[in-house]
Amino acid sequence: MKKILFIIVTGIVFSLYSNTGGIQATNQQINNPIYSFSDNRIDAPDGYKWVKLKAIKSYVLQPNGWFFNIEQQNKTYAYFVTKEDYTKDPNQMFATGFSLNALTDIGSKKAIDFSETMFINLKKQGTLLESKKIDDENLVGKIFIVQIGKTIIKYKIVGNKKTNKVYIASFETPADKWEENKDTANIILDNLNFNQNY
């Protein structure tokens, strides 16, 4: 499956299958040591390390041996933790992995309404398998699973009602590999740390 980058055009978000045209990318595997949290944070689970998402003041878990990449277009930051190194694929594709699009400027729209609209649009792309609400202080949204053809995607979409930023996180894998990869999906998404004040 190709990388997905969300672009805001006249207030509407389109998911584009991109080939890095016009996108600044570091396209490198990060081999940093585990980023330590303050005392109220948990240590990384065995087989994972914390990676700091500096631009958005957040963190994500990276499985050992997986690849971490960063891309940016305007005020949208895209982060990828993938099983395959998509930078070596001529079509920039990966089959299994996590992506996070941080929309730091959505104009006059409200982040909570924006995230709800994203949920409505994304669940229509396939069969909705599971859905639950997220309400965590400033962060409000949904976590849900959609099957689109032969691919299963677990989404975590939240709007920060304090800072008016939107985070669209997903873990995708071939449907026939879901049982094999769902624990990784849950570990990454359940522990995805958004800054309440950013």
Q: How would you explain this protein's 3D organization?
A:
This protein has 2 helices and 12 strands, in the order E-E-E-E-E-E-E-E-H-E-E-E-E-H. It has 198 residues and is mostly beta strands. It has an 8-stranded antiparallel sheet with strand order 3-6-7-8-12-11-10-9, sandwiched between helices. Strand 4 (48-53) and strand 5 (58-63) form a beta hairpin. The longest helix is centred in the middle third of the chain and has 13 residues, at 111-123.
Short description:
With 198 residues, the protein is mainly β. The chain has two helices and twelve strands; from the N terminus they run ββββββββαββββα. It has one domain: 3-Layer(aba) Sandwich (Protein Transport Mog1p, Chain A), CATH 3.40.1000.
